[in-house]
Design a protein that fits this description.
heterodimer; A: alpha+beta; six-stranded mixed sheet; 8 helices; 6 strands; elongated; B: alpha/beta; globular; disordered N terminus; Auxin-responsive protein (chain A)
């Protein structure tokens, strides 16, 4: 039996799309403005690699086959300009963040935020917009599975599909999925939580880097948090008990020689905390680790001394 | 000795033997038959002869009714006078996915009224997909003084007020098992309705209720119910509260934790770890809502003898799962979310050689983002490490024919194979071919297959394979598949043990429907929705087969001649009288 030619929502067959997208600058000529309808994540004005995206789009359309009843909304008109051409967006806030509202004035997002929000979050199962939509995760996941791992053009809501009971659907919907492995730093409106681990401690903590203005503040906060581990015993509310212990035995974690504070930056490298200005540090820090000095072999001996001498 | 006697009698029911048997005192026969538990065995026994029929009916204490409309409560009560335990299933399974109208039926009340009169000594009631009102629960609570066990799964129509009535009045309650239901949760005060003198509870499951529970009442209840062996908490219970409860319940065999994510101090963590350790009796663990990976190590000591681990509400990462599984050597059943990804499934293959059942649920099936989930690679990885696998439920974004073929080659003993490729009608993503060969491999290799759910792009070839090879198949679920009537005809013509067939969004029409005319009486039910069946086809079926109930549900605004949803089932009770106006009985 012959397979019917699959048509995407625009009414073009897959073959037609394939031939069109092979020449990437032809889109504008054909009046399709496919690139213009792409929903992308990235710093304002940045370009993401093109060729594999198109393949993804095509594949996703191909996989979008069904003779079944579907509920589509009309293709959005006027929804063309999805690319964020925000001008002078500050720092890393060019990312699609519907909650951030007017957080960074100049990044061109704020105006379209509400519009975006209302388009994506249309209520009711029936009106999920059908777009040639492709989103890049904000941190390039190393776990890409190749061509198979793309969302279809849209997860149009078919009643009762996939077959999951209501309880499970409602439960998972009310709790957003966890960050994936790579996104250790959670970005949101005005806070920057990073994990802090300490060698030997049974559990990690999280700190909001945004509430500290300097390294000194960070150090004292971390000392307070992790004091109980070096003493070996906590009071019932987790604060270090001070009975009989002198000041000098309390953590002078980072000023002493036993531990070194390091952080993982955006490239995945482990760096010594303190080298770069505070602001740059908070922008690039993904997680913190209080490392035993004995393990800090890779760091220059000078660095450890630097640590000791830092006030 | 008794069983061989039974066997001899069953094998040669000729007049000589039965003359000898009829002098066998009824009481003895009943006593012997009372040892028979399987309702299928009992069915066979009752067909031997009239004496055996009577002995069987008097000795039966548990009745299982797979379709509440196949029989009426009066008929049941007339045939079985001594029932103490009833299991009833109501709505078609697709009602779980909102395909059945709300007021469709399957109301328990009429049954309870009859039971109250005929089985005042009723002890157990287990309901699945039935409609129950608070009024019914109140009746249940007072009409049966010896009532012991209530289990509700996928039911709806009641609220926590009904639970309060049960708690207040059932003095001998041993089991209250409220699984996933459409319950109107009005608050947790119902738990405080158990009187202070009440100590008999052994099973308490309220994991799927959402509101805060009266913790003091719960703590006292757990403390005084010394025989409690199953405790499944809901999300409102914190880690600290869990620890306090566990201290009073050292003998728990099944534990469902509450929320596993509260900020703990070091000491609290240690206390929890201590309380969870040395639980040699614990074989089932679930809950772990919002589980924080860092606290999972507290569970490790409790996992030594675990056979069933339900992580389907804990969005774990692969590394967290791997570390946990290293402590679960005896695991036989595992439910996870696809957040563990293929790496997590590899860890399953490495750590769980005794695994028999795996269910992988999607964490975010309707999300707009690119979801990673699990792929064919993870499925194959599990199959290499878990040769004893016989039950799988697998939600994925992509699959290949080759991968499925490899899986069943590694695990030929599948009895339940439920594969859900979440994008309807999606082909093999590598070859772009239909997934026919995948399911062909399944039915050819897994000769013991009882239940099959298919997905992906499928042509009639899949159904040819099923009809030809799936000789033990009892339940088949089909969605967005097939090319023509021929597919369904193959199944109806080929699967001798088929009992339940549910189909949605397939191009099967009247020819297919009518090809199963003789088959449907040997089946429990048939469901067809969004197919090509017409009202005329259904009318013809109803006319030809008077012992079948043919029900059609119309959707608003649809063509008059189309039969949007068809539900066909055999019944000795005749057409039902409680159908809502949207359901037409032909």
């Amino acid at each position: 039996m012959s397979k019917p030619i699959e048509h995407d929502y625009i009414g073009l067959s897959v073959q037609q799309l394939l031939s069109m997208e092979s020449s990437d600058s032809n889109n504008k000529k054909n009046g399709l403005h496919l690139k213009a309808t792409e929903l992308r994540l990235g710093l304002p004005g940045s370009e993401s690699p093109q060729s594999e995206d198109h393949d993804h789009n095509v594949l996703s359309l191909k996989s979008f086959v069904s003779g079944a009843k579907r509920v589509f909304s009309d293709a959005l008109d006027g929804g063309g300009k999805w690319v964020f051409s925000g001008g002078s967006g500050g720092g890393s806030e060019g990312l699609f963040s519907p909650r951030s509202g007017g957080n960074n004035g100049g990044n061109g997002l704020s105006g379209s935020d509400s519009g975006l929000g209302s388009l994506v979050l249309k209520d009711g199962a029936a009106t999920k917009p059908v777009l040639v939509q492709e989103k890049k995760p904000q941190v390039a996941g190393g776990s890409g599975h190749g061509t198979g791992n793309i969302a279809p053009a849209s997860k149009a809501q078919v009643v009762g599909w996939p077959p999951i009971r209501s309880f499970r659907k409602n439960t998972m919907a009310s709790h957003p999925p966890k960050d994936d492995d790579d996104a250790e730093a959670k970005l949101g409106a005005g806070c920057l939580y990073v994990k802090v681990s300490m060698d030997g401690a049974p559990y990690l903590r999280k700190v909001d880097l945004k509430i500290y203005g300097s390294y000194k503040e960070l150090y004292s906060a971390l000392e307070k948090m992790f004091s109980c581990f070096t003493i070996g015993q906590c009071g019932s509310h987790g604060v270090s008990s001070r009975d009989g212990l002198s000041e000098s035995r309390l953590i002078d974690l980072l000023h002493g020689s036993e531990y070194v504070l390091t952080y993982e930056d955006k490239d995945g490298d482990w760096m010594l905390v303190g080298d770069v200005p505070w602001q740059i540090f908070t922008d690039s820090c993904k997680r913190l680790r209080i490392m035993k000095s004995s393990e800090a072999i890779g760091l220059a001996p000078r660095a450890i001394e630097k640590c000791k001498n830092r006030s | 000795m008794e069983s061989s006697e039974l066997k001899r009698s069953k094998d040669s029911p000729n007049s000589d033997e039965s003359a000898g048997l009829s002098s066998f005192p009824d009481e003895v026969l009943e006593r012997v038959l009372s040892l028979l538990k399987s309702h299928r065995d009992r069915s066979f026994v009752s067909l031997v002869c009239k004496d055996w029929y009577n002995a069987e009916r008097w000795s039966r204490t548990h009745v299982f009714i797979g379709n509440c409309y196949s029989v009426s409560p009066e008929i049941v009560a007339r045939r079985f006078p001594n029932i103490r335990s009833v299991t009833l299933k109501g709505k078609p399974r697709f009602s779980d996915f909102n395909l059945v109208p709300q007021n469709w039926g399957a109301d328990i009340h009429a049954w309870l009224v009859v039971f109250a009169a005929k089985y005042p000594f009723l002890e157990e009631l287990r309901l699945k997909r039935m409609a129950i009102s608070d009024e019914s629960l109140a009746l249940l609570a007072v009409a049966f003084p010896n009532f012991k066990a209530l289990s509700l799964l996928s039911c709806d129509g009641f609220s926590t007020n009904g639970l309060a009535a049960i708690a207040t009045n059932c003095k001998n309650l041993t089991e209250l098992d409220i699984q996933e239901n459409g319950i109107d949760d009005k608050g947790g005060s119902w738990l405080g309705c158990f009187p202070e003198s009440f100590t008999s509870l052994e099973v308490l499951n309220f994991a799927n209720l959402t509101s805060d529970i009266n913790f003091d009442a719960l703590e006292r209840l757990v403390g005084r119910c010394k025989s409690m062996r199953v405790l499944k908490l809901n999300r409102s219970i914190s880690l600290e509260q869990l620890q306090r409860l566990l201290v009073n319940a050292p003998q728990l065999a099944e534990l469902g934790t509450g929320s596993f994510s509260q900020e703990l101090t070091f000491r609290q963590y240690k206390e929890l770890e201590c309380t969870l350790s040395n639980r040699k009796n614990m074989h089932t663990l679930s809950g772990l809502w919002e589980a924080k990976g860092i606290y999972l190590p507290a569970l490790y000591p409790a996992c030594t003898n675990l056979t069933f681990l339900n992580l389907s509400y804990a969005a774990l990462q692969s590394s967290e799962l791997a570390k946990l599984l290293a402590h679960c050597p005896r695991l036989k059943r595992l439910w996870v979310l696809d957040t563990v990804q293929d790496k997590g499934l590899e860890a399953i293959g490495l750590n769980c050689p005794l695994l028999e059942e795996l269910r992988v649920f999607p964490d975010d099936p309707f999300g707009e983002e690119i979801v990673h989930g699990v792929t064919e690679a993870g499925f194959v990885a599990v199959s290499y490490g878990c040769p004893r696998l016989h039950y799988v439920l697998y939600f994925c974004q992509q699959m290949t024919n080759a991968a499925v073929a490899t899986v069943v080659q590694n695990c030929p003993d599948f009895t339940h194979f439920r594969l859900c490729i979440m994008n309807p009608g999606q082909p093999d993503y590598l070859t772009n071919e239909p997934m026919d060969e995948a399911f062909g491999a399944v039915v050819k290799t897994c000769t013991k297959l009882q239940r099959l759910s298919v997905s992906g792009l499928l042509t009639d070839l899949t159904f040819e394979y099923i009809g030809r090879y799936a000789k033990n198949l009892e339940t088949l679920s089909v969605a967005f598949a097939g090319s023509s009537d021929w597919g369904m005809q193959c199944v109806l013509g080929g699967c001798p043990k088929l009992r339940k067939l549910e189909i949605r969004d397939c191009p099967f029409g009247n020819a297919a429907l009518l090809s199963g005319l003789e088959k449907y009486e040997s089946m429990r039910s048939l469901w067809m929705s969004a197919c090509k069946v017409t009202m005329n086809g259904c009318r013809l079926l109803a006319r030809e087969m008077p012992r079948l109930n043919v029900e059609v549900m119309k959707e608003d605004g649809s063509d008059d001649s189309q039969a949007d949803k068809v539900y066909v089932y055999r019944s000795i009770a005749g057409p039902r009288r409680d159908a809502p106006p949207s359901v037409l009985t032909l």
